[in-house]
């Protein structure tokens, strides 16, 4: 079985065929799909979707790219939603949260405010986090340390080996997806090949970060086995070993995933 640890299945790109996309993933061997929240407006959507599709799971959080439209009161809503979800085995943690220093025009103070307040919630409720770390690895790590958050996933990791080790030392796992299938992505491929296997999880970020064979096309969660095969090849191990290892790693990163059977 494979686990897609990061898939925005609620995105509008899937409005025409969402159930078929989920079914195709299941047929391909993807037993679980983690659907992260991005804003107050989609908390109910990702929860409902996780319950509707076979193998669904969800996280709740305010994405850094959505902070321009977020209100302080959204954090109160998030707290209430977390409290209401604690008995739901399909709820796996806080996400997608973090910082983004790639997209221009974002208010750094506003990003930092929402990130830090959500880390406080993660610590209070002892929940793992799914972190957006685009051009922000050191700053995201600083927050994890400050708020004593141990556990979760650094999504779409593309930092240095030193930064990778720092995340691992913080109890985090590192997410790898379609980027590793591009031969020109030298640093990501080196990281994917050389980091400890027990630190890695696989993800699509669908509909984004498509693998090389879907360049500039919509990504879908059924691509996980092929992405995983690419990762296995980079590491010189069998595909089955990679699937078993990354599934165990996903359960370690998001322990509530193991509470419900796929």
Automatic annotation (TrEMBL):
<dbReference type="InterPro" id="IPR001130">
    <property type="entry name" value="TatD-like"/>
</dbReference>
<keyword id="KW-0378">Hydrolase</keyword>
<protein>
    <submittedName>
        <fullName>TatD DNase family protein</fullName>
    </submittedName>
</protein>
<dbReference type="InterPro" id="IPR018228">
    <property type="entry name" value="DNase_TatD-rel_CS"/>
</dbReference>
<dbReference type="GO" id="GO:0046872">
    <property type="term" value="F:metal ion binding"/>
</dbReference>
<feature type="binding site">
    <location>
        <position position="205"/>
    </location>
    <ligand>
        <name>a divalent metal cation 1</name>
    </ligand>
</feature>
<comment type="similarity">
    <text>Belongs to the metallo-dependent hydrolases superfamily. TatD-type hydrolase family.</text>
</comment>
<dbReference type="GO" id="GO:0016788">
    <property type="term" value="F:hydrolase activity, acting on ester bonds"/>
</dbReference>
<feature type="binding site">
    <location>
        <position position="8"/>
    </location>
    <ligand>
        <name>a divalent metal cation 1</name>
    </ligand>
</feature>
<dbReference type="InterPro" id="IPR032466">
    <property type="entry name" value="Metal_Hydrolase"/>
</dbReference>
<feature type="binding site">
    <location>
        <position position="132"/>
    </location>
    <ligand>
        <name>a divalent metal cation 2</name>
    </ligand>
</feature>
<feature type="binding site">
    <location>
        <position position="155"/>
    </location>
    <ligand>
        <name>a divalent metal cation 2</name>
    </ligand>
</feature>
<dbReference type="Pfam" id="PF01026">
    <property type="entry name" value="TatD_DNase"/>
</dbReference>
<keyword id="KW-0479">Metal-binding</keyword>
<feature type="binding site">
    <location>
        <position position="6"/>
    </location>
    <ligand>
        <name>a divalent metal cation 1</name>
    </ligand>
</feature>
<feature type="binding site">
    <location>
        <position position="96"/>
    </location>
    <ligand>
        <name>a divalent metal cation 1</name>
    </ligand>
</feature>
